[in-house]
Amino acid sequence: MIIKRLKKIITGLILPLIFSCVFLAANEKITPLTQKNTVSVRLLFGVKEHKAASWQGNYRLKKGKITAAHSWRLIEKDFATLTDFKLKIRRACPLKWEYQAPGSRPVSSLPYLPNGFILAAEEITVDSQILIKIKKDGKTVPGFQIPLGKLPFGKRLAFLNGDMIVDRVPTSRLITSSPTEDAYPSAAAAPGGGAVAAYIAFTGNKRFQPFLKRLPEEPQDFSYLQAPTGGDRVMFSELKNGEWSQPIPLTGAGGDIFRTAAAVDGDGRAWVSWSENTGGNWDIYARMRTGKKWAQPIRVTTDPGADINHVTATGPDGRIWLVWQGFRGNNSDIFAARQQGAGFGEAVRIASGPANEWTPALAVSPQGHVTAAWDSYEKGDYDILLRTYFKGAWGKVITAAASQRGELRPAIIYDKRSRLWIAYESAPQGWGKDYGFYDKAFPPLYSERRIGLKVLVKDKFYTPPGDINHIMPRTNLTLYWGRLKEPVSLLSGPKLALDAQGRVWLSARARLDRFVSSRVGSTWLNFLTTCDSSGWRQAAPIPRTDGMMHESPVLLPAPAPNGGLRIISSSDNRLRNAAFYRPLVEQKPGQNQNLPPAATRNRVHYADVPVNWNIYSIYTGPAKAPGEIELSPLAGNGSRHISPADRKEAGAVTAIRNYRAEIGGKRLRILRGEFHRHSEISSDGGADGSLFDMWRYGLDIAALDWLGSGDHFNGKGREYTWWLTQKTCDVFHNQGAFMPMFSYERSVIYPYGHRNILFAQRGIRNLNILYRYEPDTEMLYKYLRFFGGICSVHTSATRMGTDWRSNDPEVEPVVEIFQGTRQSYEKENAPRVGSAFFTRGGWRPKGMVHRALQKGYRLGFQASSDHKSTHISYCCVFVEESSRQAILQALKKRRVYAATDNIIADVRCGSHFMGEEFTVDRPPTLDVKLTGTAPFVRVTVVKDGIDVYTLKPGKTFVQFSWTDTAAQPGILSYYYVRGEQVGKEIKRKIKLPDGKLSEVTYSDGEMVWVSPMWITSK
């Protein structure tokens, strides 16, 4: 039944998206293509196939010539040439299929996916046709013609009863092909129909390429894991006479660079700007080329605080405008500066407020208006704002999009009638607020994402015909067979461009469904559409744009008279890396065969496919004038206000930040954070959102003081994604206001345990796993002692957990007692703790935290999110100062508590504080003070794993003292406090082993767990 339902979903929902996936392998040799009358089409076979099949054939072009044949996930002996092809239809292999447990879903339930290739052709006329002859499984099928010269974007042709489809795609070519990781391109049109482009080239340490390898034995010296990389360089290439020049470096080797921007001023001089880390501060630098000579770099910004996310545009007077996001004090603002000769004038703050302003965009109108757009979190969610410079002055700030949804990452363009088109991401209301296993009040960061679109004409807003989201692909987010859901929009990073014919183009990035997941994670691909008098055309996939979620390509107008677009993109080959099902190859040596059967998995893998970022140039082909586009007026552009819930939360955050505890003559403050969040960088992070959404979540949505990424080995241990994660930790570091920590998840199966690793310093690589698991944990402890880091077991009582066979109190001082995406692991029958029949992640009761405490381990309590969960997991540390080192030291001292909301907890015994071990000369008295966000229905004192005292205060503020009159002299006991707030009663049905349903009841009230104290009475 499941298989039938799956096939129905595949054909009806998933396959239309799969058909929209194209790819050209990163290391293929490409025949140079001109722009004149160039057309590319994609041919996909096995569209309706439900079994293995082989296809082969030949083709020729009538009127024109085929100049290149590009792969679309061709593997093994598949091929496509300028004249013929041969390929097979295979089963898909979803992410992690190679890690399925014995006896799990059969291979026969995997769907078959279409396969095919792309043909690029030149000298095309309206009468050009591809004549094709085909055999399927050795049998000849009727030949047919493909009307290449009459095939527009957005139209799909079906042949052979729908088993083959053909559609038009942009034509791509390689700009860079080097061992460096080349990404984050920027570009600008140049005089004479050319273009200039800049990008960042990262050189990794070859010892760590491309993925982490399992260790055959323990390293004798861990210092090699701190070996330097080759760092970043800004590279430049120029398009002249249809050819891209050999890239040249604009900066020295070993840099630390974030984003680039390219522009050409009115005198034809090329400018490239970038943000670079110099002496711990991220500032914007620029270089100018006059003729063939590059001037020395100039430093545009010098203020303390990161200056990032800059964009450039050439104004009507030929002078370049530079707009960026700059952190000043506790938040970021938007700044602008204008070119003055060989430099830039004084920066002007064009947007400021008590919250962060983000990701500016720039556009220039035919009449000389220079408009900046950005998004602001000032009102408790993201809104799009505009401000225009005209006739020597900046006008007032205009609200372009403000609703209860989140509107962010704007793109803007003026059309030929000076109408301002505004596109942006639109996230669900309340996104990133309370979401997890016990609380689904709001959507997580990446459950749905649409494109918003408006047009500003003078002072009124309009909408173009149709909803652009209806012609963009949708994806199916089903994670488990049998839980089939409707597909959703997962669109991000919109880009706008106006071509030489006056046609407006829009590109957005879409997540492909789980059957196109690769070894490096989920796959995102850009899709392109254009608007004309008939509305929006069906979006076409853009080859060579596959990669991570956050990086979108650059759209440039191609020169007249042909028009159309040039697209400059980066890609890491991950769509080709999305595996088809093939015979599995076991890794050796295998896992410990003495483990319980439920904890073992057959580890298998596929041969590595090269994964390397390169830069590509893509051309749509000619485009006609769009005709008159009818706009419809909008009633309003939304209102901006702070909701009562947001005001309440802001007050609770302020109260925590203002709280001070006097301990041993020192004043301690609370810093809220966590170090177990995932993002697109995790191979299983397709549902977590982008790396930059993670930082936005920490800075804005959760208003954290510190945050660490929990991505698995920072992206399978790849040098590039490790470097990117480390870099952004420094980009968003704002001393005293927000302090990212350097962290990752190290995933070792039960009974050894997944652990989250944390450092206060940059530059330490991931430690991979030993082939032999038994000494692996001890090796990890040595590594952490060597570098001064710590770790924390997570989900300890699951199949990812541990039986607590190991602990080193110096480097493993805390444990994740609660995880938002799953449950608590305090002890059996405690609140929010599961059972053998009500568990997420498997049931391993030996991993309960109280068992570790009974073994004598000294562990403080922290809470973190893991995948998807948001806003209900906080690791609150008491520090002497606001710094990374202070956070690390507080965790080492166990001055920490776990909470699911902004709860203040202060528990001490005399002059001693939570996390300490000490001796008293009388029965110990605990002084407890809790400030909640709702009334506490229960506060419990736990001694040696037993609830020994319970208070039912019914108040938000609780303060009491409790003396252990049963304390025995000379006996060491541990004590901790658990608080439970009022909540709603939730009921869930669970299935018992006999197949019967039983009901589980629990409260979703917020909780706090305060780290133990270990006390001996004299």
Number of strands: 67
Q: How far apart are the termini? A: 68 Å
Tell me the strand percentage band. Answer: 35-45%
List the total number of helices: 9
Helix content: under 10%
Radius of gyration: 29 Å
Point out poorly predicted stretches: 1-35, 98-104, 479-484, 583-608
Assign an overall shape: globular
**SSE class:** mainly beta
On the 0 to 100 scale, the average pLDDT is 89
Largest sheet: 12 strands, mixed
Can you tell me about this structure?
- The chain has 1018 residues and is mostly beta strands.
- 9% of the residues lie in helices and 41% in strands.
- The chain contains nine helices and 67 strands.
- Strand 65 (985-991) and strand 66 (997-1003) form a beta hairpin.
- It is globular.
- The chain starts with a helix and ends with a strand.
Which short descriptors sum up this protein?
single chain, 1018 residues, mainly beta, twelve-stranded mixed sheet, six-stranded antiparallel sheet, 67 strands, 9% helix, 41% strand, globular, disordered N terminus
